[in-house]
Amino acid sequence: MSKIKNKKYLLTGLVAVLLVIAIGARAYLPIWVKDHVNSKLMALDKYDGHVDDIDISLIRGAYKIDGLIIYKSDQSNERPFVKTPLIDLSIEWRSLLRGAIVAEIDIYDIELNFAKSQTGKGAGWKSLIESLAPFDINRASVNNGKISYTDYTSDPHFELSATNIDAEVKNLRAVKDDDKSLPSTLVIAASTMGDGQIKVSGDMNMLKETPDFDMSMEFSNANLTAFNDYAKRNAMIDFQSGVLDVSGELAAADGNVVGYVKPVASNVAVVGLKDDMNPINFVWESLVSVVMEIFENQPNDQIALRIPIEGNLNDIKTDMFSGIISILSNAFGEAFTKQEDGTISFSDAFIEQQ
Prior knowledge:
It is a single chain. By secondary structure, the chain is α+β, with helices and mostly antiparallel strands. Helix content is 27%, strand content 40%. Helix 1 runs antiparallel to helix 3. The model has no long low-confidence stretch (mean pLDDT 84).
């Protein structure tokens, strides 16, 4: 009996030791992962960063990154390059039923702040992403994001931005419908300056060395006066009123691109010319007003053009001559619609590249 008791005590002790080790390892794991992530962030070229905390859920096969921030090493910009309070990365369990071990990632309230000196180019992001996600990402989402571009060289500073960004891309690794030419789907919705709305949707294949895609975009109902800082700086125009809509479609097959972009400006008026005491501005704004009046579709009070896009992904060309001719078509023919035309498809790009 003593031998049996000794074996029971030994087994109980071994289980207790293993349990203590497991509890200790579980307690230390988030600390180790946090240190590992922070070391990768500090290894970025010309950028630094840190995370506040890491939470790990072994049952979910997931971990959360709290308080991620990335900024220029010289801190030459007023805003960080990347800032988000929460990233949730986990195993995509439903894909396991198809025999694929892939991950899904959800990013919340992220801010991306670009500038001339803060583009993120050449920082070594691939190594960072690979360290954050041990498995290939099959689904990714952004919830309530913001992206901005700020020109710190102007006085006052000039900014273009999009807010309330909700985006989701599914089936990146073609776990489902892997026989389709474009198995992945992308949907983006956002608000812009001037109370405009952006909608982007389409299908793509990101597994190819040069991705294929078929996308459509609508940028609608933006108040032109919100862009006056940009217009005055680049075109010496100051809008009193006006609404801007931009739509477009773009498809690519094996690097060949075909599509168009169609801006439509409605009810445009330049700021009271008689109140501008600068004679150069007065002459220029008068000329702009006359040109807009001549090439405006009078019944719809809009000026518009349709610019064809074609070429290679590495050398996309816009047909500006056709765009200029299209101004006449809108002005003196049937007014262009503000929505996408629905005339571009993936097959168009494929046929073009034959």
